[in-house]
């Protein structure tokens, strides 16, 4: 098992990854009590990310990127934002495309 330290909305979260793979952003956020909305996610089903409601912004190697929290695996050092002005714009675009 590998120790992973990520930051979600300014809160440092420590978790571990197993041989099966890293937990997702959504799993880590829920364990830490941080709410990320979902529509298509269900624990009994494989994550697909089709509704895009769980879109978050990550900062990796100094670059910002939008990803779906339900299926993006945690990586050590990730900075994750669940509510930014950019995300509000992305959410509006996603809602219009539904």
Description:
It is a single chain. The chain is α+β, with helices and mostly antiparallel strands and 98 residues long. Helix content is 19%, strand content 30%. The chain is built from two helices and five strands. β3 (55-60) and β4 (63-68) form a beta hairpin. The longest helix is centred in the C-terminal third of the chain and has 12 residues, at 85-96. It is globular and about 40 Å long. The relative contact order is 0.23.
Question: What keyword list fits this structure?
Answer:
98 residues; alpha+beta; 5 strands; 30% strand
Strand arrangement across the biggest beta sheet: 2-1-5-3-4
Rg result: 13 Å
What structural class is derived from the secondary structure elements?
alpha+beta
By DSSP (H or I, 4+ residues per run), the number of helices equals: 2
Order of helices and strands: EEHEEEH
Shape: globular
Major β-sheet profile: 5 strands, mixed
Give helix % range.
Answer: 10-25%
Mean pLDDT: 86
- Assess the beta-strand content as a share of residues: 25-35%
Distance between the termini: 40 Å
The counted number of beta strands is 5
Which spans of ≥5 residues are poorly predicted at pLDDT below 50?
none
How is the secondary structure organized here?
Elements: E1 2-8, E2 11-17, H1 25-31, E3 55-60, E4 63-68, E5 79-81, H2 85-96
Parallel strand pairs: 1-5
Antiparallel strand pairs: 1-2, 3-4, 3-5
Give a short summary of the structure.
With 98 residues, the protein is of the alpha+beta class.
